Amino acid sequence: METQTSYLRLLAAGSNARGQLANGSDYDSHTFTECHFINCTQGTLPHNTLGILQLATGANHTLALLEFGDGRRELWGCGDGRKGQLGPEYMGQLTEFTPISIPLYQTYASQGYTCCLIAAAWETSYLVLKSPSRSNVVISMGSNDFGALGVGTKQATATPAVVSFDHLTIEGHSTNPDELVVESIAAGPRHVILHVRAGFNNEDTLIGWGLARHGQLGDTKIVNYDRPYIISLDVSSDPVQTCSLGLQHTIICHQSGRTTAFGSNKKGQLHRMDSWGRVRQVGCTWNGTYLLRDDDENTLISTGSNAHGQLGRESQVEENGVTVGPVEFTLSHDGKLPSLRSLACGSEHVMAVISPSGSSDMEVWGWGWNEHGNLGLDHMDDVLKPIKIWPARGHALEGRIARVWAGNGTSWILLQI
User: Does the keyword Repeat apply (predicted)?
Assistant: First the structure.
C-alpha cells in the first residue's frame, strides 16, 4: 500500500467487453487510460484515498480494495456482475468503479470486521474478513462452476455465502474456526488456495477448492472439490512465502526460497521447478511459470507455453521440447541488466517493474499476448521480448509507479503524482 502525498491515478489497458477497465465504456483500450471512480472527478480516486491495497481480476470483472486516511477500507468493483460476482446489488454491468454493497459483508462490518484480502476466479469473487477478537470469515459470491464458491453444493446462487471450514481435520483434530487465520488467498481461473495457520500448534496449512482434475490441488483422484480441502503438502517446516495459480497448475514459494509445483505440466509449466533456489517471488500465467530470484541480477526465470512470446526470450528448446531460462531484458547503456523490482502475471502476458542500471527511476516493461492491446502500446501484435510500456510516449501523466497488476487480457498501473 502506498501513502498519498498528493494524489493517485489508476490506469488500465486491454480487454473491456463488460466495462472491467472502468474507463466509462465497454470498448477495449489499446493504450493506458485513466480509470473512472463513480462520483469522482475524472481520473481521480475517491477523496482521502491512501492507496489500493489489492486489485483482483476475473474474466470480465475487477475488484479493488481501497484504504482511506481515516482507516476505512472499502470494496469497489466494475465490469460483469451477471453471475453475482459484484454482489447482489449489481447483476448487470458497471463501466466505472463503484462501491460494492453486500448485506452479508455489512452484517460482519457492524460486528467490527474489516475486509483485508480479496481474490477473483473466472466469474467468482472472494473476500477475507478479519476482526481483532473474532475468527476470520471467508465470503464467496458469483459463479459456482467446478465448485468455485466452496460451499459444498454444485448449485448456482447469486447470494453471497460464508465458506465453512468446520468439516476439516488438522493434526487429527476438528478445525476450530476461532483458531484459523487466513494469511493469504490466491485464485486461478478455476481453483482457489488459502494459506492458513490453524490447529493447536498454529500450523501452516494450505486449503483449496475448485477444479482439481489436473492435480492443481495436489490430488488427481477428484475432478473438483466443492468445499475446502486440505492440500497434502507439509509446509510446517518451511512455511509459505507466496503462491500463484495458473489455469491448471499451482506454484508455491517457501520462505527458504525453494519452490513446490503441482498440477498440469502439459505446456512445461512445471519444468525444473525443483531445481531453483533463492526465489523471492513467483507468478503464473495460464500456462507458464515465472520465478524472480534473489541473486545479484534479480534474474527472472520463465518456463511453459511460449505461443505468444510470453516467456520473453528467443526459444531455446531442450530435448523434451520444453524451454526454461531467463527472460531477456535489454541491457542498459553501461552493458548491465536493469534491476527487477517486481512482476505481475496476466492470462498470457507479463509486466515487470524495473530500474535501469545506475538509476533509481522506475519503469514498467511488458511482453507476451497482446490481442486486446493489453500492453498499452497502441497495437494488438504479440510482443516477444520485454519492452518498455510505461512511461509511454506522448502521455501527459507523470508520476512514481506505485503498483502494477495484470489480469485476463488487462494491465493496470497505479501512479502517485
Answer: yes
pLDDT, one tens digit per residue, over 133-167 is: 899 999 999 999 999 999 998 877 779 999 999 99
Interior/surface letters 158-188, b for 16+ CB within 10 angstroms, e for the rest: eebbebebeebebeeeebeeebbebbebbbb
pLDDT tens across 18-65, in order?
Answer: 999 999 999 999 999 999 999 999 889 999 999 999 999 999 999 999
* Cell numbers placing 79: 465490469
In the chain, which residues have pLDDT < 70? 1-6, 171-173, 199-200, 315-321, 332-335, 396
Q: Which residues contact 237 (CB under 8 A, 6 or more apart)?
A: none
Rounded to two decimals, the pTM is: 0.95
DSSP class of 338 = P
Q: What is the DSSP string of 42-81?
A: TTPPSTTEEEEEEEEE-SSEEEEEEEETTS-EEEEEEEE-
Which of 65, 59, 63, 107 lies closest to 83 in space, CA to CA? Answer: 59
| Cα distance between residue 317 and residue 247, in whole Å | 23
